[in-house]
TrEMBL record:
Residues 1-35 are annotated as: Disordered. GO terms for molecular function: ATP binding; ATP hydrolysis activity; DNA binding; DNA clamp loader activity. GO terms for cellular component: DNA replication factor C complex; nucleus. Residues 67-206 form the AAA+ ATPase domain. This is AAA+ ATPase domain-containing protein. GO terms for biological process: DNA repair; DNA-templated DNA replication. SMART domains: AAA (SM00382).
Length: 361
């Protein structure tokens, strides 16, 4: 049974059972082969969530006692927030009742004030099904999961304050977001808060190692180190990259080079070369340089973050802190303009000329 659940990731058991009836073995194998690994290896139990020990121990206690508070989970992407809540609901209600006891809403749903009033109230008012299971605590509550709640309007959040109070006898709210500062204080203060941190190197390596073993990926240790390095504690990103590199590597082992190739990271020599040219050239050549950068087709957001990395590291020690701060400001300004839809060509020229000005002033 365990192997069966592992193969089928976080699908509800009902759905899995249906699949078993309908699918011949090879079709099932195909499905497992093409299933995204982020789903295949999504933790099914709270204990499988890596690197968030406080959250894991607090929620395990809640499962033991059956007492669930309103929850607010926040932290950077790919650190296990959504997975934790889904695992919690499975462990509370079991596969049979888990779907009927949760309402899951994310940023793709309409979450304006009208939606809060209707959808949430309708679910919160629902009489909850009687769940009797000796294997799961099944407390008499239901969960409303508001994923990516930082994209909810302030009005919709304000409307939720009252709803939470009125229905709290049988409904618990789980608010999930990246930026806790975007959740209004009266809402945040009604919840027990848990901060998710970027996954530490060791924990990330362990999980990636496990996936490589399961998927029989012959790899060099440097490949896993490279994955950890380029993803900054984002487990989702590292698993996705491992899957795409694992599909396409040539040679007999997956290496760091294969990872850098799929990561979109710009080779450090290229960044260093751009920096040296900015330091040494006149303005006319800088615009030529900008043209070359665009023609090479590099991801400009990636270029910005690697430039900042270079500026802050020891290789640029002789540049004063004030100049470094001004360069960071220009990079931030450029990023903002690009997000707003500004032209890459104009912005890269502006960026490089401004950095050259700062360095040569
Ligand atoms: N702490 C973790 N332990 C084990 N696997 C994890 C962890 N965090 C993330 N993952 C893996 O990454 C995938 C995405 O995780 P999840 O959806 O929980 O991230 P999130 O924190 O909700 O991110 P976002 O803020 O972008 O919504 C999971 O399916 C799982 O494979
Ligand atoms: Mg999420």
């Amino acid at each position: 049974m365990e192997a069966f659940l592992k193969r089928n990731g976080n699908k509800s058991l009902k759905k899995v059972e249906k699949d078993v009836e309908m699918e011949p073995d090879d079709e099932k194998d195909n499905k497992s082969r093409y299933q995204p690994w982020v789903e295949k290896y999504r933790p099914n139990k709270i204990d499988e969530v890596s690197h968030q020990p406080e959250v894991v121990s607090a929620l395990n206690k809640s499962i033991e006692t059956g007492k669930i508070p309103h929850l607010l989970l926040y932290g950077p992407p790919g650190t296990g927030k959504t997975s934790t809540i889904l695992a919690l609901s499975k462990e509370l209600f079991g596969p049979e009742f888990h779907r009927s006891r949760i309402l899951e809403l994310n940023a793709s749903d309409d979450r304006g004030i009208g939606m809060v009033r209707e959808k949430i109230k309708k679910f919160a008012q629902k009489k909850i099904s009687k769940a009797v299971s000796s294997d799961y605590p099944c407390p008499p509550v239901q969960l409303i999961i508001l994923d990516e709640a930082d994209s909810m309007t302030v009005d919709a959040q304000a409307a939720l304050r009252r709803t939470i109070e009125v229905y709290s006898a049988q409904t618990r709210f789980c608010i999930i977001c990246n930026y806790v500062s975007k959740i209004i204080e009266p809402l945040a203060s009604r919840c027990v808060k848990f901060r998710f941190t970027p996954i530490a190197e060791e924990a990330q390596m362990k999980r990636l190692q496990y996936i490589c073993e399961q998927e029989e990926i012959n790899h060099d240790n440097s490949a896993l180190e490279a994955l950890v390095e380029v993803t900054d504690g984002d487990m989702r990103k590292s698993i996705m990259m491992l899957q795409s590199a694992g599909r396409s590597y040539e040679g007999d082992k997956l290496t760091a080079e294969d990872i850098y190739e799929v990561s979109g990271k710009i080779p450090i020599e290229v960044i260093q070369d751009i920096w040296d040219q900015i330091l040494n050239q006149s303005d006319t050549n800088i615009s030529e340089l900008a043209e070359n950068v665009i023609q090479e087709g590099y991801d400009i957001m990636q270029l910005l973050s690697q430039l900042i990395e270079l500026v802050t590291n020891a290789a640029t020690r002789d540049v004063s802190h004030l100049k470094k701060a001004r360069i960071a400001e220009i990079c931030a300004e450029t990023e903002f303009k690009l997000i707003k839809g500004g032209s890459e060509e104009l912005n890269v020229s502006y960026l490089l000329v401004s950095i050259s000005d700062i360095l040569n002033s």
